[in-house]
UniProtKB/TrEMBL annotation:
UniProt protein name: Probable ATP-binding protein YheS
Keyword Repeat: yes
Protein species of origin: Parahaliea aestuarii
Keywords: ATP-binding, Coiled coil, Nucleotide-binding, Repeat
Matching Pfam families: ABC_tran, ABC_tran_CTD, ABC_tran_Xtn
Amino acid sequence: MIILRDISLRRGTRLLLDKANVTIQPGQRLALIGANGSGKSSLFAMLLGELGADGGDIEGMNNLRLAHMAQEVETTELAAGEYVLRGDAELARLRDAIARLEAAEDYAAAAPLHSELEAIDGYSAERRVQRLLQGLGFADGAWQRPVSDFSGGWRIRLNLAQALMAPSDLLLLDEPTNHLDLDATLWLQQWLQRYPGTLLMISHDRDFIDATCERILHIEHSALNAYKGNYSDFEEQRAERLANQQASFEKQQERISQIEDFVRRFRYKATKARQAQSRLKELERMQKVAPAHVDSVFSFSFPAPDKSSDPLLRLDQATLGYGDTTILSGVEMTLRPGSRYGLLGKNGAGKSTLLKSLVGELPLLAGQRQSGEHCRIGYFHQQTLEALDMDASAALHVQRLSPGAREQEVLNYLGGFNFRGEAATSPIRPFSGGEKARLALALVVWQKPNLLVLDEPTNHLDLDMRNAMEVALQAYEGALLLVSHDRHMLRNTCDELLLVNGGVVTEYSEDLQAYERWVLSSYDDTPRQPVAGSVQEAAGDSAANRKEKRQQAAAARAQLRPLQQRIKKLEAEMARAEQTLDALRESLADPALYSEDRQQDVAALTRQEGELQQQLETLEADWLEQQETLEQLSG
């Protein structure tokens, strides 16, 4: 049992924890959450003995075997496998001692060490290392390469593998999924579910927390609050507590009103209907949990694109790759306004190759890439952070994109991403990874893209920022292509899934749970089963079959196009009628209109209101009829 009693912790002049108390039982699995900068990593440093408490006592840490995931990126010429193996210090000590004694031909002295090595299962160590590296997404043979060969993100994965290799009673993991893709995240989730010791983990991935943790520790206002259950339980419990505060309650009602307004406006609009239905299903839950985020410092939205094209972007019979190496072939993809795709696929399957080819960073090896006249791409990826100017301020980054923008407009905009005061006007060099990610995202949003291509946008973002981003993406009117290991983000912002597998890109007809089962089956000893109706069939398609399918799809699109155009025209007419009706009702609400000498004006405006209302109802009825026909033909 670990007991933190009246712990106070400072960093400089800032009070992070004030007389915090918590008891951790053996074998518990806890998630430590809180806003960036609230003190989570400092609490870890204190538990590791790297940082002293400013007050209070810690009990129960003596004689515990402790393993943690180092955040610093080490440069060494050690082979990756050897680096990971040395996470088990006792194992490494015995192996080194045996190697020295046998090199000196002192086999008698080495004999008892062999027995000790066998007692700790040392002879299976290399096999266990290879399984760890495979699970975390490393290619076959990577364990033989020196650590210095790997980039920063892959070295962090090696640090994670080293922590998992170490026998431990207490495992401390600081944002372990930050540099993982979805497949590696699922593997780690399964590994942690089987871990027998006590787990304390910093994470901003709510699905990952839900699957691995049974208790939440939340740092808020210098206090450490404990909640029973996983993140979803925490959210509801905290919402209940905050709802008792009137100010929070009023903000909650405002947020619910925004959700209902979204549903009211878009439930009959073709490009938004599915999202609106999804929001209806979740509204009851959101009414309970909305207060959990009312005190968020983030508030932003994606502005409506100025112009758009249909289609925005398409690939026809595209072959993608590098030089003479083909990664994907026969790629057919059309992105239209309102398209919302989540992209799935194992590490190395070609997801990044597809994204780079779509945005034009990587030339096609064959086929065509066609971009609409008004296609405006917003592309976010991890290299975006590296391209930031460390000596420029957040405001200057925005002003370089729009030299004519007013300073106050820029500062107001950045405030929605929690860059306020000096944080907006000072050089960004001291920024954390999360702050840099927020700035990079803010720069993408500022440019009003009508096609968003987001490659792991949630890395380094805390839960409140992820929630704000999710809300913004739900109301986004452009097209979206998202790669993310955050399953909650994928479920709540994407309407369809695409799978990159076996050198092809196919529509994925199953849900994320089916994908999880498929991924995890590849780590089992049982034969790996294909995903129903997608991977195996797509990989086995002949060229003739694919050509026939393309011809059928083209014929179907030709048949649907007049209906789609009619629906689009009706939507535009409905929007104009609603604007005119709103303006008319605003005039009718003016008290000055009802003076005795303006009775004729009142009558004329009232008559116009009735006519407009009738016109709008007729348009809506026509729209519903056309939409029903379109759905029947599409089905």
